[in-house]
Design a protein that fits this description.
The protein is of the alpha+beta class and 326 residues long. It has 13 helices and 10 strands.
Length: 326
């Protein structure tokens, strides 16, 4: 079981490339918090991640509320804002601008991306693409909390340059539109995000904690693979400890210290995410969804779901159906 892939599937990670920008120094572009534009760009998702990939040239990127977060991007680099924070890109460090909210909408009469060929002045040229990744935040998405607010992906490893080159090819195709162009760009953006996470995991210190560190830990990683591979099984701390080759107390302590939640709480959270996915399928009842992920009663499932999400599963499903129909 590939736990990271399993989570990204379950939280419905979906990409979209919105802007193909050619800029000349001096230039600045500010993106507002995605909470203010989410309904316009990816209305079917409750959480949206912003990203930018530099194809040519370079620029600076920073969080809107933290000048110290500024990083310099070179050709092939990407920058991702997993929590959807306001941020700035520009040819000069620390220069701000006002976001243009009229830019953020999904067109019905032509394919994405929007193309901007004359941003800024008459100096050195850069080209970059901007896009979004939509996903579920609830009931449970461990990836969002595991990543920093600003993630700088450097084009140092095999793969990052490949993604940039594939993006460039897809954009060339967009200049002479063929069927499926938007889908190619969206899938490439999802690949870029996966590569970014893998690069981030590889760079984590050995003593680091959190969900991503748990994936690479021998014993905790094995426990995660078991829980994700057979989520409906009647796992206990004892049975998981036996499977991973630790004593009950050593396993419980190791898992909780590394993941910040006890193993049974993690399993419960993951079961809720899987059940939420099932509830979006036509014809799946609440009782069926609860049973399929390992709950012995619908009442217990209802209580756990309401505690985690804030509303009962039936109300949640109706709200999701309304969002998808909008």
């Amino acid at each position: 079981m590939d736990v990271l892939s399993d989570v990204l599937r379950a939280v419905r990670l979906t990409g979209a490339v919105y802007f193909d920008v050619r800029a000349r120094e001096p230039w600045t572009a500010e993106t507002p918090p995605v909470t203010s534009i989410c309904a316009e760009v990816m209305p079917e998702f409750e959480h949206v991640i912003s990203f930018h990939i530099v194809l040519d040239g370079g620029c600076w990127a920073q969080l809107g509320d933290d000048p110290k977060s500024a990083v310099q991007l070179a050709a092939g680099d990407a920058v991702i804002f997993p929590r959807g924070d306001s941020h700035v890109l520009g040819s000069q460090r620390g220069v701000r601008s006002e976001p243009d909210y009229s830019m953020y909408y999904r067109p019905n009469d032509r394919p994405l991306p929007f193309v901007f060929k004359e941003l800024g002045g008459k100096g050195a040229a850069s080209r970059f693409i901007c896009g979004y990744l939509g996903c579920d935040a609830r009931p449970f998405n461990p990836v969002l909390d595991a990543l920093p607010r600003l993630l700088h992906v450097r084009a140092r490893q095999e793969g990052e340059n490949l993604t940039r080159d594939l993006m460039r090819m897809a954009l060339l195709e967009n200049e002479h539109p063929r069927a499926g162009g938007e889908t190619i760009l969206s899938k490439l953006s999802e690949l870029m995000f996966l590569q970014a996470i893998r690069q981030y995991i590889d760079g984590l210190p050995k003593e680091s904690k959190g969900w991503l560190s748990g994936l690479r830990d021998r014993h905790v990683g094995m426990a995660l693979r078991l829980m994700h591979g057979r989520p409906a099984e009647r796992w206990t701390i004892d049975s998981l400890a036996r499977e991973v080759g630790l004593s009950r107390s050593a396993f419980a302590e190791r898992f909780t210290e590394l993941m910040s939640v006890p193993p049974m709480q993690y399993l419960g959270n993951w079961r809720l995410q899987l059940a939420a996915q099932l509830l979006e399928r036509n014809g799946t009842s609440i009782a069926q969804a609860a049973a399929e992920v390992g709950y012995e009663s619908e009442a217990a499932f209802n209580r756990a779901f309401k505690k985690q999400v804030g509303i009962p599963p039936g109300s949640w499903r109706r709200s999701r159906m309304s969002a998808s129909d909008a």
